[in-house]
Design brief:
The chain is mostly helical and 95 residues long. 74% of the residues lie in helices and 0% in strands. The radius of gyration is 19 Å and the shape is rod-shaped.
């Protein structure tokens, strides 16, 4: 299971998600990943009970959540890349 506890950023290292939409994307991603995990058990239970219609429905929900997780990952990556580009520019300006 993913550890979602918040941790303090070490001194002198900028928080790459501060002031960006990255925190929102991270929260969405963590939520979606948690729901995907729970679908697995429900799908197996539905199959074991012989309820293939429910199992198919849950697989569809899982596919939708996987698509949301991919999009959240893309947005998070884009935000973090922008932050790191800014940090590199600042470092070059200081030198």
């Amino acid at each position: 299971m993913l550890d979602t506890r918040e941790s303090a950023q070490p001194a002198g290292i900028p928080d790459p998600t501060a002031g960006t939409g990255s925190r929102d994307a991270t929260e969405v991603l963590l939520g979606v990943l948690g729901s995907i995990e729970s679908y697995e058990a429900c799908i197996l239970e539905a199959e074991r009970d012989g309820d293939l219609e429910v199992a198919d429905f849950l697989r569809g929900l899982r596919r939708q959540d996987l698509a949301r997780a991919r999009e959240a990952t893309r947005l998070l990556r884009r935000s973090l890349e922008a932050v790191y580009r800014d940090v590199e520019k600042e470092e070059k300006a200081v030198c």
